[in-house]
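Weekly modeling sync, notes
Attendees: AB, CL, MP (scribe)

Item 1: holo prediction request
CL wants a bound-state model with 2'-monophosphoadenosine-5'-diphosphate before deciding which constructs to order. AB pointed out that an apo prediction alone won't tell us much about the pocket. Agreed to run with the ligand included and paste results into these notes for async review.

Input as submitted:
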Amino acid sequence: MTDRYAVIGNPIAQTKSPLIHGLFAEAARQDMVYGAIEGATAPGAFADTVRAFVAAGGKGLNVTAPFKLAAFALADERSERAALAGAVNALKFEDGRILAENFDGIGLLRDIEDNLGVPLAGRRVLVLGAGGAARGLLLPFLTARPAELVLVNRDATKAEALVAAVGEHGAVRACTCADLDALGRFDLVVNATSASLTSDLPAVPPGVFSPAGMAYELAYGKGLTPFLRLARNAGVGRVVDGVGMLVEQAAEAFHWWRGVRPSTRAVIDRLTIPLT
Ligand code: ATR
């Protein structure tokens, strides 16, 4: 029987995951199908949908908003990064058990280090935001040993709580937007707030951007967001959106499910929308 996979979210029409996994499967000659499920949001409905998918031969799911926490709760086993992120973006169904992973952070790291050629070791990194997206990237970032990882958020107490949760894994600290002026330039500034979804601008001073550095917007397909425009106007070396992260997290899930690592370059090129 052909193995079944899908992405579940609500809404789901915007998803690129079936396209990405379809291209991976074709290139890696895998006998599988990958669909999209619009999950019902009523209490308990997510678990019912997942169980029905497994009963119908489902082997794995990608999970997107608003089900990342429900997937976390449903899992029998969670990886360390999923546990720390408190959210799950991939499930695997094996021997009657539900295994949970979060590949968002590692996907971002692979894009930055392998595709964009910026190893984080020894670099100064600034992350804006302290919500789910920021939470998911902290552990993978710290394993890459940046010289310093600074977390800044409107609500400083949330940034401090996150730092307390991961502090043992490396050099990380929280600061307020007002402190940023004194911290100088960063090699990499990542916008992990949801501000780009509302076209709002995170309150960062232009002095954090470096002419040799990079500004990375996690969102994909939103064009030159206010954050990227601010960075460009401040003279940052490179502005990047989350297309590479999107494809790399998919590749991690594909490898986890199928045991085959797909090549990502052609897929990233196909999905790239130039930031003009
Ligand atoms: P996600 O899962 O996408 O990270 P989230 O958990 O709701 O979403 O977190 C949203 C993040 O974006 C938070 O860090 C939030 O800041 P607060 O914790 O202070 O609310 C941040 N955010 C949202 N809108 C913002 C804006 N207009 N300016 C700055 N930060 C914003």
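Recorded for review: The chain has two domains: 3-102+244-271, 105-241.
Action items: CL to compare against the apo run; MP to circulate these notes.
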